[in-house]
Amino acid sequence: MKLNNYSISIEEIYNLLQAQNLRIPAGAIDTPGGKINVNVPESFESLEDIENIIIAASERGIVRLKDVANVYFGEDDDAKKIYSKGKNAVVLAAYFKTKNNVVLIGDEIDDAILKTKNSASADLDIDKITFQPEDVKLALDDFILNLFEGIIFVIVIVLIGMGIRNALIVSVSLPLTIFASFCFMYIFKIDLQQISIAGLIMAVGMVVDNSIVVTDAVQMRLNEGLPNNQAALEGVMESAVPVFTSTLTTVAALATLFVLPGEAGEFIKTMPVVIIAALLFSYAVSIFVVPVFAAMFFRTNTKLDNYDSKTRLIFSNLLSAAFSRKKLSAILVFGIFFLSVATAVLVLPLEIFPYTDKNYLYVDVVNSKKGDIKSTYELTKDIESLLGDEKAIESIFTCVGGYFPKYYLTSAIGSDSADFSQLIVKFNLKNDKAFGKDKQEFMMHIQNKLNENITGAQITAKLLAITAPGSDIEILISGNERTNLVEKANMIKDELMNIEGLYNVTSSYAKNRQEYSIDVDNSIASVMGLTKYDIQRQVNIALSGINASVLNLDDNEYDIVLKSNIASISDLENFKIKSTATGNKIMLKQAADVTLSAAEPSAQRYNKSPVIKVTAEVSKGYSAQMAQNKIEKIINLNYSDDDIDFEFGGEKQTLSKYLKGLGIAAAISLAVIFVILMIQFSSLFQPLIIMISVPLSVIGSIFGLWIFDQPFSFTAGLGLLSLIGIVVNNAILLLEYINRARRDGLTIDEACKSSVKRRFRPIMLTTITTVVGLVPLALSASSFFTPMAVALMTGLMVSTLLTLIVVPMFYSMVEK
User: How far is CA 245 from the centre of its chain?
Assistant: First the structure.
C-alpha cells in the first residue's frame, strides 16, 4: 500500500481532486468595450492530467498521484448491469403521457429504431423487451374483429327468428346504437381500448332486445287486423313502460360497478359507462325509430304466432307439470340453487385476477451471499444457462444488481441491491407442445427446475398479473419481544413448509450476519491525536470509495472514483490513518482492534412494533384460501400468544376485499331494482316473484364456469353482477302480460300459461341474441374476459329457461 509511505491521507487526495477540477466564476474586467468575463477552465482533460496532479512535496521531490495510485478506465464493479444474449446491454424505458395515441407514437419509435440499426455497426442488437404500441394494436384489432363478429352473429339470429323483413327493421337498431355509442365515447373522451370495446361487445346482443320486444308487439297487433300505423302506435304504447323498466333495471345493475374498490373499479370503469350509454340509445331507437319503419314495411305474418311449435309444446308441458306439483317444483328449484352454491364453494377454484395474456414470466433471484454482486452475477449466469435449454423460451433479458425499469403496469420496482437480480423471460408455448396452452404449468415447470438445480438463493418465477404482484400467502407477525417474535416466525415458517402445495416459503427475518467492528481505544487514539472522525472518514473512503470529481472526454462524462486496494483484514489493520490535529500517520491497529462479530439485523416495523413477514406461494391445483385456512387454524391452536399479533394478507384477503365490494354492489343493485319494480307493478309481492330469476341465473353461471373449466374470479363475479339487471327483464315482460291477461278475464293459471306461449318467441330471441353476441368474447381465450362471458352466457340461458316455468309457477302460488 504505497500511500502508507507518504504523509498525505486518502481524504486529502479526495480534497485535492475536488479542488483541482472546480469551475468557479473568476469575475470580470472592465474594458473600453465593456466587461469581459474571466474564466479558469477545469483542469482534467485526460487520464494523464489526473495522474500528474501533485499531491505532496518532500525533500525527495514532489509526489504525484501516479506515485501512490493507479489511474485507469474501468467499470463500476458494484453497479447494476443489464445483459442480453450474453452481452452488455442498455435498457431504454419510456412512458406515454395520457390521451396520446400510443399506436402512432409506436410507429415513430419503430422508424427511429430502424434508422439507428441502419446507421450503427453490424454487431449492435436492438430488442424490444415489451412494446405497448404493438400490444395495443393487436388487442384492438382482435376486439374490433370480435365486435363485428358479434354484430354478424346477432343479425343472423334475428333473421332466423323473425324473418327477413322484420329482421332488417330490428337490425337498424344495431348500427344506429353502435354509432351513437362511438359518438358518446368521443364526446366524453373515453378511449377506444380493450375494456371499452369489451363493453361494446357485451352490449351488441342487448341493444336489439328492446327493438325485438317492440316489433313483436307491433306484429301481434298487425296479426290481429289493425292498420299499420295503429298497430305501431299500440305496440309502442304497450311496450314502452315494461321495456323502459327492463332497461332501467339493467342500467341499475351496471351502475353499481362504479362502487367497486381499488384498482379493480378503476380498471373496469369504462365498461359499464359504455354499456349503459348503448342501452339508453337502444331504448330511444326502439321507441322512436324502429316503430316508424315497422309501420312502413311490416305485413301480417301469422307464421310467427305458431303456438304449437315443438319447442313451445315442450315448455307448455313442463309448465303444466310444474303447476300440478308446485311445492315439489319449488323445493327442486331451491335444491338446485343450493347445489350450485355448494359447487362454487367446494369445487370451483377461486382466483382474484387472472394472469395477463402476455407470454412473459419474470424470475426474481435473491442471493444468500449478501452484498456480493459478483456471486449474484455467477448465480444468474447459471440460471440463464438452465433456462437456455427450454424450447419454449425465445429470449432472456437479465438485470444484475437491481430491478428492471417498470416495463408493465403491474411490474414491481425496487431499490438496487448487490444480492438481487431479475430475469425477464419471453416464451412461446407453440415451440414446446408438452405444456399445451397452459402458461401456469410452464411457469411451475421453470420454478421446479430452478429449485432442483440452483442452491444458495431464493428464486421465484412468476407470470405477469393484471394486479400488482404479491405472495399468495402472507403472515405478518409482530411483537415487542424480539426473541419470542423470531422464534414464532421460524416455527410458523416450518409449518408452512410442511403444508402440501406450498413452495418458496420465505421469512423477512435475516439471520445475524458477521461484520468487522473497529473498536477504537480512546486513550491511545487521544495520545496519538486521532479522532473517531479521522478513522471513520478515511476508512470509509478507502473501503467504499467516493466520487471525487468528473472527467469530461469526447463529450462524455466519467466519474472519478477514489478507492483503496485494501483486499484483506490485515491490509485494513495496516492502513495508516492521518491525524488532522498533528499531521502524523498511525496504523489503524495501533489505535484500534478490528474484530469479527455478529451484526444485529435491522427490524422492519408495522404499527410501531417490530414485525416479521412470512410468505409462501401456492402451486397450481391447490387453493390459497384452503391453505391459509389451514395455517390460521394451526396458529390459533398452537401459537396464540398475548405478546404476539398475527395479521394475514395474500390472496385470501385480497379476494375477500373484492368479493365484499361485489357483494355491496349486488345489494345496492337488488335494492334499486326492487324499488323500480315496485313502482311499475304497484305491488310488493310481484317484484319479489321477478327477483326469483336472479338466483336462477346463479345456477347457470356456477355450473357454466364448472363445465367450461373456468375459475370463479373477480371477472366472473362481474358477469354475475351484470346478470342481475339482465335476467329480470324476461320476468318483467312475462308478468306484464300475465297481469294484462288477467285483466282481460283469464284465470290465474290460464293467464300464466297463455303469457308463456305469447312471450316465448321474443323472450327466447332476446336471450339468444344476447348470448350469441357474447360468443366472440367467450372464444377470445382472454384470461380476463372469458370467465365473465361464460358466467353471463350460461347464467342467462339457464335463467331464461327456468324463468318461463318458475316465475309463472310462483306467481300462481302467491296470487292464489
Answer: 36
